Amino acid sequence: MIDKVSLKCFHDIEGAPTLLLWRKLRHHAEQEASGESAGTLIRRQRVPLPPPDDDQFYNIFHLNLNQQMVLYARTFTVTNCDSFTRNFLTKLGVILNNPATAPDDPHSCLLDKIEKSMTPLRPYERRDTLKQFLDHDRKVLRFSCFWDDSESVFGDPHQLILHYYLSDDTVEILETIAPNSGRDNPAKFLHRSKLPR
């Protein structure tokens, strides 16, 4: 089974030529969490070659692009390297293969899909509600409305008053009933609340 994780490989060129340092990087969670790496996957050590050559160790000439390496029964594919590593290996006479593309991580693709579905179609701007409250407290817009409900059974036209509170962008609708109309005056047609668009 091939592990599909993003890795950074460091080869110690100052010490013994067979020392390898591998660090596992978070691909998606790194951006959402603290931004730090996920930790060391294989510590700095001499990594033996897979059997039957397990009496020998990996050295710098085993590292090449677009090539699979078996490290402790896990198969890794070296996909690319930076310019310093490319120049260093070229000076040593290593002919590098063409870089390969890293496979997509299914978990990261799923998280990206979920994050895109949660993004609103129109971005909302952060508003200072305390400032809005202090500036517009006790300021109410009043509108006269009309609702024609005559098409339904026992429906009548209704005269309404709409209050728009500027302090918190809430709406309240009251029904005005004419005297001697034979109707009870309801408490409120719509309680004060925020209305979605």
Automatic annotation (TrEMBL):
PROSITE patterns, per the entry: DM10 (PS51336)
Origin: domain of life: Eukaryota
Repeat is among the record's keywords: yes
Record domain DM10: where: 1-93, 137-197
Keyword vocabulary terms for this entry: Cell projection, Cytoplasm, Cytoskeleton, Repeat
Cell location: Cytoplasm, Cytoskeleton, Cilium axoneme
GO cellular component: axoneme; microtubule
GO BP annotations listed: regulation of neuron projection development
UniProt-listed PANTHER family: EF-HAND DOMAIN C-TERMINAL CONTAINING PROTEIN, EF-HAND DOMAIN-CONTAINING FAMILY MEMBER C2
UniProt name for this protein: EF-hand domain-containing family member C2-like
Organism from which the protein derives: Notothenia coriiceps (black rockcod)
Gene that encodes the chain: LOC104959074
